[in-house]
Amino acid sequence: MARGTSTPAIRRSPRPGRSVSGPRPTPKRSSTTSRCVPSIRWPGRAMTDDRVCLALACVALAFASGCDSCDSQANEATAYTSVDQVFSEPIFRHCEEAGDLSVRSLFDTEETKSTGVLNRLIAEADHPQADVFWSGDPVRPFLLVERGLVAPYRSPNAEGLPGAFQASDGTWTGFAARARVLLVNSDLVSEADTPRSIRDLAEARWRGQTAIANPLFGTTTMHVAALFSVWGDDEAKAFLNRLRENEVRIAASNGEVKRLVVSGEVAFGLTDTDDAHEALAGGAPVRVVYPDQGDQGEQDDLGTLVMPTVAVLLAGGPHPEAGRQLIDCLLSAEVEGRMATSAAHMPLRAGVDVPEHVTALSNIEAMEVDYASVARTMERIDPWLREWVGL
Fold first, then answer.
1. Are 302 and 211 in contact (CB under 8 A)?
2. Domain-located, residue 4
3. 16 shares a domain with 129
4. pLDDT in the model for residue 294
5. Are residues 32 and 167 in the same domain?
6. Measured between alpha carbons, how far is 212 from 260 in angstroms, rounded to an integer?
7. What is d(CA 75, CA 231) in angstroms, rounded to the nearest whole number?
């Protein structure tokens, strides 16, 4: 399957009550769209000198074109994020309103999630343009840490978050988590036949009736790498090969998996909780299963993969103090509550009220994973995974 080619767009959060597509904002919050961004390349592969030069030239052009205020205010933070724009942009706006802060933001596309902004950050390593990376998963920040692109920062708001979801050296902090779930079409699958494990994707009775997102992008990449880390290479490769033999559909994104299930084109698929709850909120005939909870015996005791979003302060960013202020806001209980309500993300800290449709983290048997190990595995298995996909 061809890789996504849509490019991320950089913009500033609009003033409250002003549409992005409406009248042009004042220079301090002017909308800026990147006209030229580096080619998206998997970070495990080296870029040639000419590509690096081209990438950096494009970055310079992107920030120069359409920018009315390149002499940014000291309290303006530039944030890159792979969290869906529909959820992250209102949070950036909230952080602006909560303090003396302006946020300039760049969002990833659904198809290239989360490699677009990640590769841009790597391309900008010698000339950092961003202060904060808000990652939609906990493993891609490790690729930046290993390249020395992250500045440690221990926010006072990290105190209420579990130690398992933050680095002891302050290089990354997790909050507002999603989980990998099975989305099942209840018109096609009875309660008694409902799948309970990701292994059911490879069961012969579901041949041609299941879907996963392209494992080269987004949270599916992380999920596959987690299976390699927990199961080992042999078992993980055997599982993926069984998926292919079972004619699993490879969708462009998790959102596309949701669409296939809702439309009845497949019986069930593997996706994220935010996509699953969008289907529920829309009244679709679906049920959500947190897989591998051990209720069926040893064959499903793997646990559900939990994926906190992660905030990191980028080394050498233009406005580190504004970046720290933005991270303080992101790690607040208020933001975890907002993400639970708007995006069905599970708060990691105790005491945050969650809507009825959001499952509390304490009610899930989570997969035991080392996120740093998963990040290294993700790079290591990339060549094999590309071959599996057919690239």
1. no
2. no
3. yes
4. 87
5. yes
6. 10
7. 46
Integer CA distances (angstroms), 131 to 44, 81, 103, 284, 311, in order: 23, 11, 10, 40, 11
Tens digits of residue pLDDT in 320-375: 999 999 999 999 999 999 999 999 999 999 999 989 889 999 999 999 999 999 99
Residue 3 in any domain: the answer is no
Length of the chain: 391
10 Å Cβ neighbour count for 323? 24
From the list 269, 103, 273, 67, the residue with the least C-alpha distance to 178 is 273
**Digit-coded pLDDT (tens) for 218-273:** 899 999 999 999 999 999 999 999 999 999 999 999 999 999 999 999 999 999 99
Instruction: Give the number of domains in the chain.
Output: 2
Question: Omega before 39 cis (within 30°)?
Answer: no
Strand partners, 314: 150
Please check whether residues 196 and 132 belong to one and the same domain.
Answer: no
Distance of CA 323 to the CA centre of its chain: 20
Structure confidence at residue 298 as a pLDDT band (50, 70, 90): low
Torsion sign over Cα 112, 344, 212, 241: positive
Residue 179's beta-bridge partner residues?
306
- For residue 2, tell me if it sits in a domain: no
- Give me the pLDDT at residue 301, please: 83
204 with 300, same domain: the answer is: yes
